[in-house]
Amino acid sequence: MRGDGILTTRILRPVLVDASTGALTDLRELPWYLKVLLGSQPLHFGDFGGMPLKIFWAAFDVLTVVVLGSGLYLWLTRHNPRKGRASAAR
């Protein structure tokens, strides 16, 4: 049901077993998108890179939050240049 290699140990393979005899009845391949999803799981949780990969992703997460926060700040504090000119002309 599981792969043998370092990259395939998390990729499952569905099997059908006859409950009365215990014999293997059918063996199927997973669709490509499920293989990709299961294969990327160790990368997402930092199983391969350990602490350096976790620190790397944490730094990118902080950078993403800073960019999002600054963009939201600029969007919320924007002003209409025409509105400022119209009130100054009065």
* Major sheet attributes: 2 strands, antiparallel
Helix and strand sequence:
EEHHH
* Straight-line N-to-C gap: 78 Å
Largest sheet strand order: 1-2
Contiguous uncertain segments of 5+ residues = none
Shape: elongated
The computed structural class is: mainly alpha
Mean pLDDT: 79
Measured as a percent range, the helix fraction is 55-70%
Polypeptide structure, described:
Strand 1 and strand 2 (24-27) form a beta hairpin. The protein has a two-stranded antiparallel sheet with strand order 1-2. It is mainly α and 90 residues long. The chain is elongated and about 80 Å long. The longest helix has 27 residues, at 50-76. 56% of the residues lie in helices and 8% in strands. The chain has helices at 32-45, 50-76, 81-89, and strands at residues 15-17, 24-27. The mean pLDDT is 79. It folds into 2 domains: 1-48, no CATH class; 50-90.
Helices and strands, with pairings:
Elements: E1 15-17, E2 24-27, H1 32-45, H2 50-76, H3 81-89
Antiparallel strand pairs: 1-2
Summarize the structure.
The protein has 90 residues and is mainly α. It has helices spanning 32-45, 50-76, 81-89; strands at 15-17, 24-27.
